[in-house]
Each structure stands twice: as structure tokens, then as C-alpha cells.
Design goal:
Blueprint: H1 19-32, H2 50-57, H3 66-73, H4 77-82, H5 85-93, E1 101-104, E2 113-117, E3 123-127, E4 134-137, H6 139-155, H7 160-182, H8 186-191, H9 196-200, H10 205-218
Antiparallel strand pairs: 1-4, 2-3
């Protein structure tokens, strides 16, 4: 994996910068790593064989289930993307990096977001899979989410223009929520949540009825 420079995230014993100072630091970093640089990815000459990476990722898995894993991944480009977080991580490591490191989900594809019951038994919508959690540049999660939206759109027969709009709406929403969180205290962020009832209220009546039926099963997940 390509070597990255030292993270600019402060140590735990260093006071956290104000939201204004963090925004300024981000703009300074953008000069060195412009947003346009993330639009292109060129495979490095020493890129690891994706199959080799997948085989290596099976270490520690139940051997009898490995063939089933590969069978499910072979169904479509989207199912392959879902099962190949390590491959994408290796590829992202060879690309441009902001070096603004966070605790990543590590596998923030579309279907790792969903509904589940909170300890208070209220249905929440959020990330629900952290098997691949690790430290890394924040944009890795954003890029994996965006790539999964494109792959899912293609699998479902959407036009390229529709897929592009879906990706732009996804990353716009990420940006807007991060902007909100930046002005919150740690405790406010801890309690911040998206409730399914709030999402249902934004849906068309026909879609809302279908989702309400599916959400009955979500109460069993925590």
C-alpha cells in the first residue's frame, strides 16, 4: 500500500481548533490537494492484483464460506464492489489524499446504510456496518459511497445522467451534514440522529407505504 504523509488530525491532548479555524485549515489544504485532483485515478505500475488482494482478505474467514462469498460477488459489478472493500482501499491509497484522517467506516457503500432500532426502540437511519473500520483520509468513505451509488444505478438500469445526479445529491448531503456537525459540541454530535419517521415524511405516498411495510422488520435489528 502506498505510503501517506502524516495526518493533520491533532493528538487527543491538543485542544481542538474552532470550526472557523478548521474551515480555514481545510481551504489551505485544498490548495495542495485541489478537489479536481480526486476526479482522476491512474493505476500505478506496481498495482497489486485485485484477485490476490481478495484471496488475502479471506484470512480468518470460515473456509467453507469463501466460495459462497465469491459466488455472491460474481452476480454483478455492484455485488463485486460490496465484497471488495480491501481492493478499493489499496486503489484509494495510491491516489491523491487530503491527509485529513478520521475513524473511517471503511466500507461506506450504499447498502451499509439502513434502518435499525436504537436502545430507545426508535427506528434510526445510519451506517450499520463497521467490520472494516480503520483510520484513513475522510474522502475514502465519500468516494466508496459515491462509487457504490454509480454501480447500483447501473445495475438498476438508470441512465448515466441519472446516476450522476444521484451521486451529486449524495455528496452534497454529506457536505451539508458535515457543515452542521462542525458547529456542534461533542455531546450534540453524539445525540444527532436521523429518524426513519422524518425520512418517511419526505417520500411520496406510494413509496412511503412500501417502506413502512419493510420497516416492520427493522424493529428486530439493533
Amino acid at each position: 500500500m502506498a505510503k501517506r504523509s502524516t495526518s493533520v488530525i491533532p493528538a487527543f491532548d491538543v485542544p481542538i481548533m474552532s470550526p472557523q479555524d478548521r474551515r480555514l485549515a481545510g481551504k489551505v489544504r485544498r490548495v495542495a490537494v485541489p478537489r479536481s485532483s480526486h476526479a482522476v485515478w491512474d493505476p500505478p505500475a506496481d498495482r497489486r492484483d485485485p484477485v490476490e488482494v481478495l484471496v488475502e482478505s479471506n484470512r480468518g474467514r470460515v473456509p467453507d464460506l469463501v466460495p459462497l462469498r465469491f459466488e455472491r460477488m460474481s452476480v454483478s459489478p455492484f455485488t463485486f464492489l460490496r465484497g471488495s472493500a480491501q481492493v478499493m482501499a489499496f486503489d484509494l491509497a495510491s491516489g491523491p489524499s487530503t491527509d485529513l484522517e478520521v475513524r473511517l467506516c471503511g466500507d461506506a457503500h450504499l447498502l451499509n446504510f439502513g434502518a435499525f432500532a436504537s436502545p430507545e426502540r426508535r427506528l434510526m437511519f445510519d451506517l450499520n456496518d463497521f467490520d472494516e473500520a480503520s483510520h484513513g483520509p475522510f474522502e475514502w468513505d465519500v468516494k466508496r459511497l459515491a462509487a457504490s451509488v454509480v454501480a447500483a444505478a447501473r445495475d438498476n438500469g438508470f441512465e448515466p445522467a441519472q446516476a450522476r445526479r444521484a451521486v451529486l445529491r449524495a455528496v452534497d448531503a454529506y457536505r451539508d451534514w458535515m457543515d452542521r456537525y462542525a458547529d456542534m459540541t461533542h455531546l450534540e454530535v453524539w445525540y444527532a440522529r436521523i429518524e426513519m419517521q422524518d425520512l418517511l415524511a419526505t417520500m411520496k405516498a406510494s413509496r412511503r407505504k412500501q417502506e413502512e411495510h419493510l420497516l416492520e422488520k427493522a424493529h428486530t435489528k439493533d
